[in-house]
Amino acid sequence: MSLDNSITTEGNPSCRRLSNVSASRADLFGGPNVLVPPKHLMASSDAAEIAMEMEMAKQHLEDESSSAEASPRAGSPVTTPLIPASTTTTDEFALAFDIDGVLIRGGQPIPAAIDALKYINGANPYGIKVPYIFVTNGGGKTEEERCIDLSRQLELEVSPGQFICGHTPMREMAAKYNTVLVVGGEGEKCRVVAEGYGFKDVVTPGDIIKTRHDTTPFRKLTEEEYRNSRVRDFSKIQIEAVFVFADSRDWAGDQQIILDVLMSKNGRLDERSETFDEGPPIFFSHNDVVWSTSHEHSRIGMGAFELTTIAFGKPQLGTFEFATRLLRQWRKDTHSIDKPPQTVYFVGDTPESDIRGTNEFNEISEATWFSILVKTGVYQEGTIPRYPPKKTCETVLDAVKFAIDRELTQKPTPSGNGAVRN
Ligand SMILES: [Mg+2]
């Protein structure tokens, strides 16, 4: 049995998922707090602002890519997208890709990935381009930084305007909470991400440890961590929410600090709740129990944090709503397509997040969301996925070929191949 089939939070009585619409105060503040994305994440009013920010990031990315002094990456220049002049762009369907275990594994591209992206950028028998986005639960650095990495790995320009990671939707929580504890990732990166999202006062575990070193008896800050961390007067600070942006690099220490905050009275570290139910809410960027790396066996992710379950990322429907808005904006900005796609093919390697989310979102979405499972990541051949995909393919190249063939040969449209001139 594969690991991903044997470990699941489903049915675990310690894990509850609540809707912020139906949850009572007792639900929210009684025991471990579990929130799904708030209703406003579904609203379209923020889309333009997000798109604008992403376009600015995209422009920044382009500037950096085109600069002869893009020094850290000068040895690996970003290649020009493969867009033959005669290519047409379909407005009928779109693609969405998970990254780890589908396109990248252990920091290296999966061999079929580069060909798959060439294929959907016009190098296919139909001469069409298919708009696409990336939806990963990974995170821990800015979207812009991750896109530069991806561009280099995949030999193709990837824009922040077509990219969602686990914590991307958390940017919409910045207006709601003033002082927040941000956990996970390397060094100061997640503080930088959170501040970039607009969070006004970001506390890290490093700040708490530097201020009071006996908080975590077995964790000592490195010199760099000590230098970057900030001594704070926590008697005057109220932590209003906890955000786990990326996998912790020190689970023991971070769990201790998260517990201290959750068991505090109103997020004040020097005041413990007598009933342990007065702490702030906690949001996770995803709840993947396992994920695919260069190791031959799947590695555990933050979903194995038994503390609670999560708020964002796949399979949460709010993330798919966010993806829908991003895809709409991306198609409009880059392909001048001002209508929603009829079908979105989602290619992923994890039944519990990619396939489950796609299938469940398909039930409520106007567009058809079609799940494709690939065998290059978490899913292991021979096992029966708990959440069955509509289609299983060996690799991402097989997946995109299947999707395009299905659209252009099996689903003829009145306009022929359903493609428009770009
Ligand atoms: Mg994956």
TrEMBL record:
SUPFAM superfamilies xref list: HAD-like
Protein name: Phosphatidyl synthase
Organism: Aspergillus rambellii
Recorded GO CC terms: mitochondrion
NCBIfam families linked: CECR5 (TIGR01456), HAD-SF-IIA (TIGR01460)
InterPro entries assigned: CDP-alcohol_PTase-I, HAD-like_sf, HAD-SF_hydro_IIA, HAD-SF_hydro_IIA_CECR5, HAD_sf
Pfam families from the UniProt entry: Hydrolase_6 (PF13344), Hydrolase_like (PF13242)
UniProt region (Disordered), positions on chain: 58-85
GO BP annotations, alphabetical order: glycerophospholipid biosynthetic process
Lineage summary: Eukaryota, Fungi, Dikarya, Ascomycota, Pezizomycotina
